[in-house]
# Entry
Amino acid sequence: MSKLTKDERDKMPAEDFGDPKKRLFPICDQADIDSAAKTHQNADDPAAVRDNLKAIADRKKLKCPESWLKPDTKDKAGMSVAPTTPVTSAAVEPVVTLAKKDKKDDDDDDDDEDDAADEADESDTDDDDG
# Structure
């Protein structure tokens, strides 16, 4: 990571900052890209900073992290299609439990219908005996 004096930093063009409005994430060399890659998530708009960092790296012929080279999977609203954090079994379990419970409730309803059909059959049988 390059050590910049205040004067050197002030003289840098805005296009060399990952966040040019706030003049954060100055990029002079590969070490700066590596450092910014680890800390850019703390920015107000991490995706914009990452895009700026990729452009700076390309312009300066520096290397971006491999994870940045994969295409983004965003929907039209800019929301990530895949979850960014792993889903734990605890988060999935209630959904599965509800699904099983709903299925059980449906089975119970079928039993009621079967009971009603059995009673109707028995009443038909009673009429034949009489």
About this structure: The chain is about 60% helix and 5% strand. The longest strand covers residues 17-19.
